[in-house]
Design brief:
Layout lengths: L1 H58 L6 H10 L1 E8 L4 H5 L4 H10 L2 H6 L6 E8 H6 L23 E8 L6 E10 H5 L4 H13 L5 E5 L13
Antiparallel strand pairs: 1-2, 3-4, 4-5
Length: 227
Amino acid sequence: MKHVFRALLICAICVLGYMCVTSITSVIEFDKARELRETAIKKNLIEIRKAQIEYQKVKGVFCANTDTLVDFILNGKLPVVLKEGTLTDEQLKNGLTEEKALKIVKKGNMKEIIKNGLEGFRRDTSYVNVYETLFAEQYSREDIPNLMIIPYSNNEKFLMDTARITNYNTGYVLPLFEACAPYDSYLGDLDHQQLVNLKDYQTKLERYCGLKVGSVTESNNHAGNWE
């Protein structure tokens, strides 16, 4: 009887040991795969953020549509201002501003230009292509649409949203955007229990279950939730 009990005990220990090793291995493999995938996703989100910031500079609002953002990257233009000459402290004290100086120069009245000391003052605006300026070194034109696809997903696009919040003290309206990749989109084919545990952990901490840049509920300087 003692031998039987001992044999059963050894079997139980072996089973428990196997289960512990399997559990630990499962966590390690899940975390390793998650890290690899999130590295690629973060890169895309950073590029989306870069494009959104330039879009907002040109349009005054952020873009809520991935196709529109792709078109902006490939075909959009960015203004580049050539500046020659600066206003002196004395000119500024006399009430001259960049805007006023530019108006005087644009009129072309040399008497007024000389009177205000603006002979060398010049502001010319030219336009450059968004893709050629910001993306051509790293991506071909064919690669740009893929920036909107969540890596390791089933060709799912990043979730994009925009909003505006108003400071009621100043009346200033602040445009916001966010681009998101939920865990389910890029971790769904991995260990189900590990994914459930991760989502439960994030939910308890009141964090987004996935990766994202920006926010449509608060101003966070377009930061990624991993930064």
